[in-house]
C-alpha cells in the first residue's frame, strides 16, 4: 500500500533573514517542520515572531535564505499546500455577522462549516464582528481551523499567539485541536508567550531582539 | 474562477448594503457640487445650458474621486486582502469583483438622479439616454483607474489625496471624450465616435487594470 501514501516532505527554513526598514530583525533562522510536527516560536516582544510567521505565510519577502518543501522551493502563495495564517487582524469585516464572515471564508476556500461547535461560537454568531470581545474574536478566528475539507491534504497552520486572549478551557480545546491536526499529518508553527502544547514536546525556536 | 468572482461580489454587496449611508452621502455630495455651479455662474439658463454637460461630468468625477479611497482600505486594515491571497485564486479576481460592485452600487446610482440634475440646469430631458450612456461608460473607466490608484497607495499616509492626485490626470482622456459627446449632442451631430472612443478606453483599462491592481495589492501586503 505504499503507493497510496501521500508524500510528506519537511517544510524547511534555511538561513531566513529579514530586514525591515534598514534594520535586521531576523538573522539566519534555520529549522524544519516535518508532516505531523509542531514548532513554537518564543521570544520577547519585537523579536520577530510575527514577522517570521508572515514570511512563511508569504506576506513578507525574506531578504535572504530559502523556504523549502522537501526538495522544492516553497512559494507560499502559489503552493498547493493549504495554509491557514491566524493572526490579528483576522480578516473579518466589522459590519457583518460572525456567521456571515465564517461562511464567506468557507465558501471561498471550498470548505464546509463543521457540525460541531468546538469553540462555542454559537452564542454570538449573529452579532456583528465589531461588538465581539477580543476573546470571542480569537475563538471565531480559530474556528476557521475547524472548517472541513473533503479532499485537501492536511494544512500548514501558522498561529500567531493563538491563545493570547483565550480562557483556560478554550486553551485546552485549542491544544486538543492542534494535537488532532498533528495526528492527521498537518504541520503547525505557532508563536506564543504562554506555554503551548507542552505535552506534545514541540520544537522550541528561541528568537532574540537583535542589537 | 467565475464562481470565486461571484463569492467576492456577494460579500462586497452585503458589506455595501450594511453601509448604505455611504452611498446616500455620495449622492448628496454629487447634488451639492451640481448646485454650486448655478450659484457661481449665475442663473442665466443659456449659460448653464452651454456648460451643462461639462458640469455634470466634472461633478461626477469630483464626487467619485474621494470614494475610491474606500475601495480597498477597509479590507486592508482588517486583514482581508491577506486572507484572499491564500485562497488559491489570483488577487485580481478579488479586485475585479470589488471594482464591479463599486461601479454598480456607488457610481451607477448617479444616473438615477441625473434626470433631476438635467432639469435643474436646463438640459433637454430627451437627451437623458445619450448622456447616461456616455456617463456610464466614463464612470466605468474611472472606477478601474480608481482601483489601480487606490491599490497603489494602500497603506500610505494621506492615501485619499494621493490617490486623487494619481487618478485625475489619468482620467483626462475620459473627460475629454465624454464632454465631446455632450458637445456633439448639443450641436446635433452624431455622438457615436466619442462613445466608441470611450468604449475603447474602457476595454484597454480592463486589460491593464487587473494585473496592475494585483501587483498593487501584493505590494501592499508585503509592506504591511
Average per-residue pLDDT of chain A, rounded, comes to 88
Under the CATH scheme, the architecture of the domain at 1-81 and 193-211 in chain A is 3-Layer(aba) Sandwich
- How many strands appear in the DSSP assignment of chain B? 0
Strands side by side in the biggest sheet of chain A: 6-7-8-3-9
- How far apart are the termini of chain B? 27 Å
Q: What is the chains' assembly state? A: heterodimer
Q: Give the low-pLDDT segments of chain B.
A: none
> Which protein chains make the most extensive interface, counting residues with beta carbons within 8 Å of the other chain's beta carbons?
A-B, 27 and 26 residues
CATH level 1 class label of the domain at 1-81 and 193-211 in chain A: Alpha Beta
H-E order of chain A:
EEEHEEEHHEHEE
| Percent strand of chain B | under 5%
Name the helix and strand elements of chain B from N-terminus to C-terminus, one letter apiece. HHHHHHHHHHH
Description:
Chain A is α/β, with parallel strands linked by helices and about 210 residues long. Chain A has a domain at about 1-80 and about 195-210: 3-Layer(aba) Sandwich (Rossmann fold), CATH 3.40.50. Helix content of chain A is about 20%, strand content about 25%. In chain A, the strands form 2 sheets. A 5-stranded parallel sheet of chain A has the order 6-7-8-3-9, with helices on both faces. In chain A, strands 2-1-4-5 form a 4-stranded antiparallel sheet, with helices on one face. Chain B has one domain. Chain B is an all-alpha fold. Chain B is built from 11 helices and no strands. The interface between A and B is medium-sized, with 27 and 26 residues.
Amino acid at each position: 500500500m505504499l503507493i497510496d501514501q501521500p508524500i510528506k516532505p519537511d517544510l524547511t527554513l534555511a538561513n531566513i533573514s529579514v530586514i525591515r526598514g534598514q534594520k535586521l530583525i531576523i538573522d539566519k533562522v534555520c529549522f524544519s517542520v516535518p508532516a505531523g510536527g509542531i514548532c513554537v516560536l518564543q521570544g520577547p516582544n519585537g523579536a520577530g515572531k510575527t514577522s517570521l510567521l508572515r514570511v512563511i505565510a508569504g506576506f513578507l519577502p525574506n531578504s535572504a535564505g530559502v523556504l523549502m518543501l522537501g526538495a522544492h522551493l516553497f512559494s507560499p502563495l502559489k503552493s498547493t499546500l493549504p495554509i491557514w495564517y491566524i493572526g490579528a487582524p483576522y480578516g473579518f469585516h466589522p459590519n457583518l455577522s460572525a456567521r456571515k464572515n465564517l461562511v464567506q471564508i468557507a465558501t471561498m476556500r471550498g470548505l464546509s462549516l463543521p457540525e460541531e461547535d468546538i469553540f462555542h461560537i454559537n452564542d454570538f454568531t449573529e452579532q456583528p464582528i465589531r461588538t465581539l470581545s477580543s476573546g470571542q474574536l480569537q475563538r471565531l478566528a480559530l474556528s476557521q481551523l475547524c472548517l472541513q475539507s473533503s479532499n485537501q491534504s492536511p494544512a500548514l497552520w501558522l498561529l500567531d499567539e493563538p491563545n493570547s486572549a483565550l480562557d483556560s478551557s478554550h486553551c485546552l480545546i485549542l491544544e486538543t485541536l492542534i494535537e488532532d491536526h498533528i495526528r492527521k499529518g498537518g504541520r503547525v508553527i505557532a508563536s506564543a508567550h504562554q506555554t503551548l502544547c507542552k505535552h506534545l514536546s514541540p520544537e522550541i525556536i528561541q528568537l532574540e531582539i537583535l542589537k | 474562477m467565475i464562481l470565486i468572482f461571484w463569492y467576492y461580489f456577494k460579500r462586497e454587496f452585503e458589506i455595501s448594503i450594511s453601509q448604505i449611508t455611504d452611498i446616500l452621502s455620495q449622492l448628496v455630495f454629487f447634488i451639492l457640487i451640481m448646485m454650486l455651479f448655478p450659484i457661481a455662474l449665475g442663473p442665466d439658463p443659456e449659460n448653464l445650458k452651454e456648460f451643462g454637460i461639462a458640469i455634470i461630468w466634472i461633478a461626477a468625477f469630483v464626487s467619485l474621486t474621494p470614494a475610491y479611497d474606500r475601495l480597498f482600505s477597509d479590507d486592508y486594515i482588517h486583514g482581508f486582502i491577506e486572507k484572499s491571497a491564500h485562497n488559491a485564486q489570483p488577487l485580481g479576481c478579488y479586485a475585479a469583483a470589488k471594482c464591479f460592485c463599486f461601479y454598480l452600487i456607488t457610481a451607477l446610482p448617479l444616473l438615477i438622479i441625473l434626470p433631476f440634475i438635467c432639469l435643474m440646469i436646463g438640459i433637454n430631458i430627451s437627451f437623458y439616454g445619450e448622456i447616461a450612456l456616455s456617463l456610464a461608460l466614463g464612470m466605468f473607466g474611472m472606477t478601474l483607474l480608481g482601483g489601480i490608484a487606490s491599490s497603489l497607495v494602500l497603506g500610505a499616509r494621506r492615501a485619499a489625496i494621493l490617490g486623487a492626485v494619481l487618478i485625475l490626470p489619468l482620467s483626462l482622456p475620459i473627460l475629454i471624450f465624454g464632454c465631446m459627446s455632450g458637445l456633439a449632442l448639443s450641436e446635433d451631430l452624431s455622438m457615436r465616435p466619442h462613445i466608441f472612443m470611450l468604449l475603447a478606453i474602457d476595454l484597454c483599462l480592463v486589460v491593464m487594470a487587473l494585473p496592475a491592481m494585483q501587483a498593487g495589492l501584493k505590494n501592499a501586503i508585503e509592506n504591511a
